[in-house]
Design brief:
Order of helices and strands: HHHHHH
Number of helices: 6
Strand content: under 5%
Number of strands: 0
Radius of gyration: 19 Å
Distance between the termini: 45 Å
Number of domains: 1
Structural class: mainly alpha
């Protein structure tokens, strides 16, 4: 067997896969509920997909700052939150179909505005999430990843 074949036999691979599946189920449900809050959009701008992706970038920034470098146990947490919950909550396919629909409808200015705002707001949110996550690390965790006594 090669190293890649052994990957599927390792217990930690199964734990990571289970974490992704559970997180994905939660994220998909959250996405459904988020989109329900917007109802059927009458606006030319796809606010529902735009806002979920910006929020997802922010939350992923927090998750990366909190769980990267936290040791062996953090791999399942990163998989659960990053790939599972946030990965299924956000959507690249939603952006692309919105852009294709906008292009077919002749709304080229809105299509380019959507691209620009998605990238700009997404990056800004990711940086803000990383900053908040790093602050949370400094505030609530010691450098070895353990909780400070008396803090949450």
């Amino acid at each position: 067997m090669t190293a890649n074949q052994n990957l599927f036999l390792r217990p930690e691979s199964w734990l990571t896969g289970l974490a992704i599946a559970l997180g994905g189920a939660i994220g998909a449900l959250l996405r459904f509920l988020w989109l329900q809050q917007f109802g059927s959009e009458s606006s030319l701008f796809p606010w529902a997909v735009f806002s979920e992706n910006v929020l997802g970038a922010f939350l992923l920034g927090i998750a990366v700052a909190l769980f990267v470098g936290r040791g062996k146990n953090s791999a399942a947490m990163r998989a659960f939150f990053g790939t599972g919950v946030i990965g299924s909550f956000t959507t690249f396919s939603g952006i692309t179909i919105d852009l294709a629909s906008g292009g077919q409808s002749g709304h080229f200015f809105l299509m380019f505005l959507y691209i620009f705002l998605s990238i700009t707001a997404g990056l800004t949110s990711a940086f803000a999430g990383l900053s908040l996550g790093r602050y949370m690390n400094r505030r609530w965790f010691i450098s070895d990843g353990t909780n400070r006594e008396g803090d949450v």
